[in-house]
Amino acid sequence: MKTSIKKIVTAVGATTALMAAGQAAAEIRIGIAGPMTGPVAQYGDMQFSGARMAIEQINANGGVMGEELVAVEYDDVCDPKQAVTVANSMVNEGVRFVIGHLCSSSTQPASDIYEDEGILMITPASTSPEITERGYELVFRTIGLDSMQGPVAANHLASLNPERVAIIHDKQQYGEGIATAVRDTLTDAGVEVAMFEGITAGDKDFSSLVTKLKQADVDYVYYGGYHPELGLILRQADQAGLDATFMGPEGVGNKDINSIAGDAAEGLLVTLPPSFDQKEENQDLVQAFEDKGEDPSGPFVLTSYAAVQLVAEGIEEAGSKDPFDVAEALRAGTFQTPIGTVEYNQAGDMESFEFVVYEWHSDGSKTPVN
Amino acid sequence: MQDLLYFIQQLINGLTIGSTYALIAIGYTMVYGIIGMINFAHGEIYMIGAYTALITITGLTALGIVWLPLILIVALICAMIVSSSMGWAVERVAYRPVRGKHRLIPLISAIGMSIFLQNYVHLAQGSSNIGFPALVEGGFRFGPEDSFQTSISYMQIMIFAVTLVCMTVLSLFISRSRIGRACRAVSQDLGMANLLGIDTNRIISATFVIGAALAAVAGLLLGMYYGSIDPLFGFIAGLKAFTAAVLGGIGSIPGAMLGGLILGVAESMTSGYLSGEYKDVVSFSLLILILLFKPTGLLGKPEVEKI
């Protein structure tokens, strides 16, 4: 029985490989995997819009090694189970380069499959350190790590001389990871962390939590997670008369938080990648997005654009479409992208990536704090 | 003093949530009481009620109507109408054709219905969280100015009041009205009621409709209280309400009320004194314990073997 299953698997594998070979001759398929639907689909829109723009522009300039890039898009709903299905579909479609995924908890299981199947993956959004900690050869990112973002947030909080800080997270890989990084840095800085507690993602009732925050008399609350929950916490805290300043990572920095929290979103502190769309050298690109009626200001638009560009330049540099050669080229080279100069270390992380603290306003705009 | 205020605050939080669990739980308990089946699509009907209310509120605001009571009443009526027709349709599509078959068949068809409705709203309204406008703001505060104050918002008072009114009306309806009497007859013995000239199909439809209308009330109230809705939020609320129904004794209307309140308070006390992470653990542990030690629930009558 075992051998027959093995045979079938081998046969299927071989067929897939043949199909892949057939397709690869005509074009280079770039997989884009992220949430098109689900609670964090807004971030997915940023990712798809950035990656599509890069593919379009690269093709307009003659493609990569004379071949056209073709996007293969899948929706993972930011669900780890769905991400695995998507990763398998990418394998079946013969995709060799993937831009994605978005949520760390999706990226991690998907990257196991990509690494095993020899697919190169660049995530434009996942910040969990674990993703690149496992010594994988084909996993890269165009964004910083929680271990960089957490300290930025914590140092900012510490500089405000808080009396008591509460840290809340959504128990997911991203949220809890960054919340832990913030707590560790705050503790090192000698700030009292009065509370460190998880909530359930998707929950709607935070009245008990808000009461608890009131009782603990905290003046700052850090939330590790995404905007749907923080929006509700802000709103319910405002109604209960909790007088504290909230802070969150880039997962909460989305205009949708304003539709949920309303005026309660005013004054929220958010750590975000710097506004790449404000940079002088990106103005042509920003114009191209605006001509298409798209908004390039989201935190993941230009990181996705850069990810596609890196794949393209990696292939050119390596002179080969083999993901292992491309990975080697990416680690060796220095690349100029809209998100700045990219150099990779052995793990697949960028040598440096800056996070900036912004103050969020109730109309969805933001102003840098420092 | 502070500890007491804190306790009272958590109690208020818990009773608010509990009341709405109770409103949703009625739908489970009535359907179970009458045909002995669990309507797993009920959570989705609640979600559709919330969406209808939001759409109505948005529409009315766009038309320039600002008088709050009018907005709330129109939204409530629209939500109840749409949810009731959904409840009626669910019964016609997913229950009536398979009634009298093996018990598992209607269960599966109800789960199918739930998945269908969830994805339908997903497609029609998008998958992201939609903010619900805060229409009723403000409230009372008690306690010292400079430290912890217990607050009860107008919204919370409204939730208690509406739940209380709904429950009273429903109890009176079941005990006094003709349809109510017929409901009780059908729940005692469906075959016999049929022989005595009660249109049992109509009565069964009526229970689905009543349950759905109350779920719509809960949808509007909770949408406003929490502040956002999404297509998936009916599922977990449905599970909680189902737990409440079983806890109080499924089939019993006062049981649904009691079960809802106990569950709500248990949840808020857990998050208040232990940690929010254990909230769901506690509520579902309660379900397991009650099923182990008192399977008929707190107010449920033990099943008498019918000869």
Automatic annotation (TrEMBL), chain A:
Residues 1-26 form the signal peptide. One of its GO terms (biological process) is amino acid transport. CDD domains: PBP1_ABC_LIVBP-like. Residues 27-361 form the Leucine-binding protein domain. InterPro entries: Leu-bd (IPR028081), Leu_Ile_Val-bd (IPR000709), Peripla_BP_I (IPR028082). Keywords: Amino-acid transport, Signal, Transport. SUPFAM superfamilies: Periplasmic binding protein-like I. The keyword tRNA-binding does not apply. Pfam families: Peripla_BP_6. Belongs to the leucine-binding protein family. This is Branched-chain amino acid ABC transporter substrate-binding protein. It comes from Marinobacter confluentis.
UniProtKB/TrEMBL annotation, chain B:
It is found in: Cell inner membrane. The chain crosses the membrane at residues 20-38, 45-65, 71-90, 102-121, 154-174, 203-226. Its main location: membrane. GO terms for molecular function: L-isoleucine transmembrane transporter activity; L-leucine transmembrane transporter activity; L-phenylalanine transmembrane transporter activity; L-valine transmembrane transporter activity. Pfam families: BPD_transp_2. It is a multi-pass membrane protein. GO terms for cellular component: plasma membrane. Keywords: Amino-acid transport, Cell inner membrane, Cell membrane, Membrane, Transmembrane, Transmembrane helix, Transport. GO terms for biological process: D-alanine transmembrane transport; L-alanine transport; L-isoleucine import across plasma membrane. InterPro entries: ABC_transp_permease, BCAA_transport_permease. Belongs to the binding-protein-dependent transport system permease family. LivHM subfamily. This is High-affinity branched-chain amino acid ABC transporter permease LivH. The gene is livH.
